[in-house]
Amino acid sequence: MTAPSGVSAPAPHEHSEVRMAYVITQNCCNDASCVAACPVDCIHPTPGEVGFATTDMLYIDPATCIDCGACADVCPVDAIRPDTELTSTMAPYREINASYYAEHPPSPALTPGATPAPLVTSATPLRVALVGSGPAAFYCATELLDHPGVHVTMFERLPAPYGLIRHGVAPDHPATKAITSRFRLSPDKARRFRLHLDTEIGTDLGRDDLLLDHHAVIYAHGAFLPRRLDIPGSNLPGCLPAGAFVGWYNDHPDHRDLDPSLHTGRRVAIVGNGNVALDAARILVSEPESLAETTIAPSALDALRNSTVDEVVVLGRRGPEDAAFTAPELLALIQSPDFDVEVDPAALPEDPSHLNDPRARRKIDLLTEIAGRPTTAGHKRIRLLFHTRPTEILGTSCTTGIRVRTASGETTFDTSLVLYSIGFTGTPIDGLPFDRATGTIPHRNGRVTDHTTDRPVAGIYTAGWAKRGATGVIGTNRTCAQETVDCLLADHAAGRLPIPRSQRPRAGL
Ligand SMILES: Cc1cc2nc3c(=O)[nH]c(=O)nc-3n(C[C@H](O)[C@H](O)[C@H](O)COP(=O)(O)OP(=O)(O)OC[C@H]3O[C@@H](n4cnc5c(N)ncnc54)[C@H](O)[C@@H]3O)c2cc1C
Ligand code: SF4
Ligand code: SF4
């Protein structure tokens, strides 16, 4: 974190009065474009540092920022704002950025920067197939197409590209969805890029079909299979994975006809309290007219307009300090004027100062503030409950309630709709190695490995959630994709990639 020569030395990290030039706010999705743009190295954690893999967002050091604005120009989701232009909803991020530096002394770099791969020119052409068109696949494509000799063909099973950016990110987060603009290609790169929609690899085409015309295949097909809620009654109609509900309001072709029960009761219960659970809760109690201008599916908007739901209970198995949601997502939730968020003060630790993890302390501080807020008569509400474990979905032919165990015993909530949001896992594909225990493709730095020999399979790679499992935000896939593409380019330079079968000389010729 040393300033280059010619730049005045930063003040020590004292924040008795928080003053800064630029601030990173809620939309940040960790793609780290700003890190390279900053001339004084004051945005952290960087992809090379301990903590990048698990950070909620990146932060600007107020003591070092020289107010040049270079980071704001490159941010794909408009998350970086001058201090003087922060709205009241963004204002807490001034302190959030500063306190990161008070709590995190400069950390050692994880690994030295990788040696850049030699440029692939038309003299050494390389054809790569990409499976999937989510952020991981597009980050791979943009890295590869920087090389003038690389041609990329992308295969997507759905009729539209962008994976969970289109079908997962909530419609009331348009700035996050706008990250797709980062994947626009220059005319030269567009000439070397093909996208085939409605093409499922493993069903319509197999690995051998792709290797006919390509030197390498990168599997970046995500991990969106919901983890099952394994309790009695969870197969009843009205008990659904939250991922399907999210797909329904985001017009995912697999979930368009879901028809969740929103007209037969006043309460929805959500099992799990990660960011996906908070997204679903927020959509359920937001004013439908505030969603009308978004990309929400028209049929979902109609159903929400006629909804009788006025309460969502979010059931967290563990305590508030271990809640799965991130502080920025919680902050965004409580800034909506459409509904109240309620937390029982008795569920919160009296003295959070003993918590070692600053992210846990920030969550408790926010939850304590929420617990002290007055509620508004007639408002819809989201109740965040902790230490609450579901034990049974109630009902005979459909869901009528959920039984839970709390610290003080068992209780039930009447509801005709239970959404469970307890994680996602990957799916095996087309004879590709697959680790059922982790739900991921076994690999070493993105090189897919054979499960019997543990050796890399020539020409086969993976990136994104298919590689790492369902963790990390959109931008996390950028560094993940870079790692995979670096390996692929190194293998190309070393002559380790198979020649596409269509280019091999035929026997006897
Ligand atoms: C509900 C939800 C909301 C989220 N909201 C945010 C947010 O607000 N901000 C944020 O930063 N992150 C968010 N995330 C996380 C983010 O979406 C992921 O980090 C990211 O999408 C993972 O990228 P990926 O490319 O690996 O997978 P995906 O985005 O899932 O893309 C995989 C693609 O592969 C396609 N595919 C699958 N199988 C095949 C096949 N056999 N052949 C061809 N194509 C195939 C899929 O249709 C899909 O288009 C959210 C995640 C979820 C689940
Ligand atoms: S989204 Fe990317 S560029 Fe924008 S602030 Fe976050 S890490 Fe930086
Ligand atoms: S404004 Fe300039 S100095 Fe400040 S964080 Fe952004 S790029 Fe770095």
Which ligands accompany this protein? flavin-adenine dinucleotide, iron/sulfur cluster
Helix percent reads 25-40%
Which segments are poorly predicted (pLDDT under 50) over 5 or more consecutive residues? 1-16
Structural classification: alpha/beta
Question: N-to-C terminal Cα separation, in Å?
Answer: 61 Å
Rg over C-alpha atoms, rounded to the nearest angstrom = 24 Å
List how many beta strands DSSP finds: 22
What attributes characterize this protein structure?
509 residues; alpha/beta; 7-stranded mixed beta sheet; 6-stranded parallel beta sheet; 16 helices; 22 strands; disordered N terminus; binds flavin-adenine dinucleotide; binds iron/sulfur cluster
Topology at a glance:
Blueprint: E1 22-24, H1 33-37, E2 43-44, E3 59-60, H2 70-74, E4 80-82, H3 92-103, E5 126-131, H4 135-145, E6 150-155, H5 163-167, H6 174-177, H7 187-191, E7 193-196, H8 207-213, E8 216-219, E9 225-226, E10 239-241, H9 242-249, E11 267-271, H10 275-285, H11 288-291, H12 298-305, E12 311-315, H13 327-334, E13 339-343, H14 358-371, E14 380-385, E15 389-394, E16 401-406, E17 409-414, E18 417-420, E19 424-425, E20 443-444, E21 447-449, E22 456-462, H15 465-468, H16 476-493
Parallel strand pairs: 5-6, 5-8, 6-7, 8-22, 10-18, 11-12, 11-18, 12-14, 13-14
Antiparallel strand pairs: 1-4, 2-3, 9-19, 15-16, 16-17, 20-21, 21-22
Helix pairs in contact: 4-16, 9-10, 13-14
